[in-house]
Inverse folding.
């Protein structure tokens, strides 16, 4: 999990860093303005979701400067209630700063901290129902504690608006499994720039950094100051201090590893 600067091909090579980001923000802005479908960012506090959230924030700033009407941008984070205390504190602090800075700048960005239903919590399942401790081949915690709370939020929003779009930080370069998963859903896509959600028929996924390398993500986070005030260098330090397995990010679908 430790970030290592390597020689992987950069998404920024063709146009350069600044122009690539500017063009991406404009592309996102165009998609965001097409209709009134609500957008949601899946945010875990990790590097990939942080990059996506920063891009969305920059997009809303760009649109506001150009006097465009803004629709709400929802940010969802799932607290499993058994998170690493350091990670949990970081994420909650980030959400608090996000909410305050969004209000200050009059941006319609609304963070939502989600939790599992009581019957789906870790201790109820482990002790109350006698489930074994989660392991790679039986990771019941991912479905109950992370996916379902997010799906409930998305389902409710989609029911109110007809459809919804979830922004997630999945990348092809993460692993061969992730590459295969992204390609699979790209092939099923009936809507340009969006892929179908794995669980919900009226929800679409948008992957703005799907072609970025690991180094690209860190370059962006360390070159671009976080607009709501947290220090991305502190995030880098957390990754350096993490175990090989790392912490569970917010999982949006079962094809996303925890």
């Amino acid at each position: 999990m430790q970030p290592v600067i390597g020689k992987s091909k950069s998404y920024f090579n063709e146009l350069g860093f600044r122009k690539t980001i500017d063009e991406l923000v404009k592309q996102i802005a165009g998609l965001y303005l097409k209709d009134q479908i609500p957008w949601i960012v899946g945010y875990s506090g990790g590097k990939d979701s942080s990059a996506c959230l920063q891009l969305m924030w920059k997009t809303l700033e760009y649109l506001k400067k150009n006097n465009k009407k803004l629709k709400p941008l929802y940010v969802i984070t799932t607290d499993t209630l058994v998170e690493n205390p350091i990670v949990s504190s970081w994420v909650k602090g980030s959400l608090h700063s996000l909410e305050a800075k969004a209000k200050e700048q009059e941006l319609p960005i609304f963070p939502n901290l989600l939790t599992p239903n009581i019957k789906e919590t870790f201790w109820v399942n482990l002790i109350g129902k006698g489930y074994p401790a989660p392991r790679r081949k039986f990771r019941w915690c991912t479905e109950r504690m992370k996916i379902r709370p997010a799906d409930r939020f998305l389902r409710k929003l989609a029911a109110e608006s007809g459809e919804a779009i979830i922004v997630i930080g999945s990348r092809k370069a993460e692993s061969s499994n992730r590459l295969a998963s992204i390609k699979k859903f790209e092939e099923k896509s009936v809507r340009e720039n969006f892929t179908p959600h794995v669980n919900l028929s009226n929800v679409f996924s948008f992957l703005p950094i799907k072609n970025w390398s690991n180094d690209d993500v860190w370059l962006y986070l360390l070159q671009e100051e976080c607009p709501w005030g947290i220090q991305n260098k502190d995030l880098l330090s957390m990754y350096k201090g993490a175990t090989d397995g790392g912490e569970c990010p917010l999982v949006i679908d079962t094809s996303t590893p925890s």
Summary: Confidence is low (pLDDT under 50) at residues 1-7, 245-258. The helical segments are 17-32, 47-65, 85-104, 122-128, 140-161, 176-188, 214-223, 232-240. The chain is about 45% helix and 10% strand.
